[in-house]
Amino acid sequence: MPKQPDTHNIVSGAGLGLRRGFIDSFLQAKPTEVDFIEVAPENWIAMGGSFREKFEAVAADYPVSAHGLSLSLGGITPIDVDFVKDVKEFLDRFNIPIYSEHLSACSDDGHLYDLMPIPFTEEAVRYVAARIRQVQDILERPMVIENVSFYAMQTNELSEIEFLNAVLAEADCGLLLDVNNIYVNATNHKAYTPEQFLAAMPKERVKMMHVAGHYREAEDLIVDTHGAAVVAPVWGILEDAYQKFGAVPTLLERDFNFPPLSEMVAEVEYVRKLQQKNAGQGHGQKTA
Predict the structure, then answer these.
(1) Which fold is adopted by the domain 7-277?
(2) By C-alpha distance, which of 2, 3, 59, 1 is closest to 34?
């Protein structure tokens, strides 16, 4: 049976991805506008010394969610069971209720250091769903998978929307809806509008959302960088998502090019304002 978090670590509201680049200022400020934090477990599992102490200090004051980077659900090599067991120990140690990963491949014989798309085929649906179920069994927790941005089309027996929905159903897992990735893919590939994507997502699967900035390489090419402020069209998609799904817990991601903490907190505050504005829409469930 999935483990139940205590009340301290129920993730809800508006959060911020914690990065070592601003952990000192975060600890000093302890912003009350931030409801929860999120970390990549592989960046912290073996971390010791002062950074580990700082993370433990933050985790004592804020609920924590975990967002993985290297599980490679669509990869060709077997799931790294020892790594998943280490993740489970980390989740148990910090009473983390949510573990999400990308619906992508990121390794072969070694780590590719990028999130590569999975071919949109029925065979890939069965393959990836079996790997998700394997991980869920080890973790004793349901997984939440994220829709990813991609820049080259793989085999497209299915559309991106059909593939994503099929994996969610076959694996019986949750969805982390990344609204910036919706905007990136809609702009780059023009296979759907953001409104069409949201309309096709199953409400009962949406457990969490991410919002982030990107880099516009050209008029018809956007790169998902997490290195800039969120733009107005992405805020608009987020509000549309709240109107359909309710005030789902939402995290602001910023991975580099960090502005003053106050600027990131202001974006988190804007997330909260949109949640409050659309309270009561959709199913509005909290994620636990």
Answers:
(1) TIM Barrel (3.20.20)
(2) 59
